[in-house]
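Technical annex B. To support the medicinal chemistry partners, we prepared a structural model of the target in complex with adenosine-5'-triphosphate, based solely on the information shown next.
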Amino acid sequence: MLKLVDLTKTFGKLTAVDHLNLEIKDGEFFGFLGPNGAGKTTTVRMISTITAKDSGDIEVDGDSVDRNLTSVKAKIGVVPQMNNLEPEMSAWENLEVIGILYGLKKEERRQRIEELLSFIELSDRRDSLAKTYSGGMKRKLMIARALMHKPKLLLLDEPTVGLDAGARRKMWDLLKNLKNDGLTVLLTTHYIEEAEILCDRVGLINKGKMIQIDTPANLIDEVGKVVVEYFENGATQEVFFDTRDQAANYAKDIETDVRIRSSNLEDVFLKFTNRRVES
Ligand SMILES: Nc1ncnc2c1ncn2[C@@H]1O[C@H](COP(=O)(O)OP(=O)(O)OP(=O)(O)O)[C@@H](O)[C@H]1O
Ligand SMILES: [Mg+2]
């Protein structure tokens, strides 16, 4: 569905995206993880043709962005990192404008908007102005808007930033439903649990380069399934093992408070990027 070949973007002396290669299959839910400034948004913006690439190729569903810009645009839905709804328009009007832009007929538009508002559970707030929506409601409306023209590939740049735990879980269900309907999704997030729960595969990107790419389970296996965590010399130490027995054996000689737990995708992230995640 999506193929990136040696995709590169520089801003002056800074190489934001550096010969990035990636292939996402039809129906796959793929997660982009990486520290601030890693190049995630720049990549998403190049795929969505908002930012021009310097070099490399982008193919969406077999169409090259360079040769088939219009058909590529029709196949992609984008939810950008920053909210850009029309604040003085209602939810309905925000969707209607996009429907008109994509040339949907009046009745088709009405049906699609009804369907999407019901999907994001905002049917009863259809006439409220977007500026009066809560953060979570705005994010959901952004997703509905990106789905108006029935894209095949959905690009989501930090869809749940700023949402409370309940709203985030609801958003995850909404995204799982999209996947079950066959949509291909590329998601960036700083909530690593989100990637672990939703994504078939994740790519770790750092300084514009893909440094790891695999299923969450395989990445966790690679660092070690079990971690011994303890505090020493003013910092938390983490040592990884394949089994609980090995971990317990190591932990028994540690004199400070020690915790043995299962590894998670956040451990993978920290190990490979060597930085704490900050959103
Ligand atoms: N328009 C621009 N002009 C100059 N530099 C830019 C521009 N857009 C992005 N950059 C730089 O490119 C690098 C990658 O930025 P990008 O927004 O892609 O990171 P990101 O991975 O999305 O980070 P975050 O997690 O903070 O959203 C950063 O160093 C950023 O400052
Ligand atoms: Mg970003």
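Notes passed to the chemistry partners:
The longest strand covers residues 14-24.
Residues 165-180 form the longest helix (16 residues).
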